[in-house]
C-alpha cells in the first residue's frame, strides 16, 4: 500500500487526481469506479499496456488515451493494491506480481 501510494503520486495523480475522482468525461475516476472494481484484468492491462478507445465507467463514456507508463510488474501490483483500497474502495483479494506478469496485451 505504501509503495503503491508512491507509484500513484509519481505516475497517476496528474490525471486521476489526489482524491481518485479524475476529471468528468476526460479522466475516469478510480474512486468507487465500477470498472476498476469489477474488471480486475482489464484494469491491470490498462496500467500495464495503456488503454484507449471507448470505455464506460460508472455509466459515463470515456474515449481518451492513457499511455503505458513503463512500470514494472511489482509496481503495477503495488499501485493496484493502493487504488483498489483507497477512497472508499475495498479489495481483500490482493494483486500479486505473478498475477500481473501473466496478463498479456
Ligand atoms: C495522462 C493521464 C493519465 C495518467 C498519467 C494515468 N491515467 Fe489512467 N486513465 C487515463 C484515461 C484517459 C483513461 C481512460 C482511457 C479510455 O478512455 O479508454 C484511464 C483509465 C484508467 C483505468 C480504467 C478505468 C477506471 O477509471 O477504472 C484505470 C484502472 C487507470 N486508468 C489507472 C491508472 C493508474 C494506476 C495510473 C498510474 C500508474 C494511471 N491510470 C495513470 C488517464 C491517465
Automatic annotation (TrEMBL):
Span of domain Cytochrome c: 1-87
A Pfam family per the record: Cytochrom_C
InterPro entries, sorted: Cyt_c-like_dom (IPR009056), Cyt_c-like_dom_sf (IPR036909), Cytochrome_c-type_DH (IPR051459)
Domain of life the protein comes from: Bacteria
Alphabetized GO MF terms: electron transfer activity; heme binding; metal ion binding
Keyword terms, alphabetized: Heme, Iron, Metal-binding
Protein name (record): Cytochrome c
Amino acid at each position: 500500500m505504501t509503495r503503491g501510494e508512491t507509484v500513484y503520486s509519481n505516475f497517476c495523480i496528474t490525471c486521476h487526481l489526489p482524491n481518485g475522482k479524475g476529471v468528468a468525461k476526460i479522466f475516469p475516476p478510480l474512486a468507487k469506479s465500477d470498472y476498476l472494481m469489477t474488471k480486475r484484468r482489464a484494469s491491470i492491462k490498462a496500467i500495464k499496456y495503456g488503454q484507449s478507445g471507448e470505455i464506460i465507467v460508472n455509466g459515463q463514456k470515456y474515449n481518451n488515451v492513457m499511455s503505458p507508463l513503463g512500470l514494472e510488474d511489482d509496481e503495477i501490483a503495488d499501485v493496484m493494491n493502493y487504488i483498489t483500497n483507497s477512497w472508499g474502495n475495498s479489495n481483500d483479494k490482493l494483486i500479486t506480481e505473478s498475477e500481473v506478469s501473466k496478463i498479456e496485451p
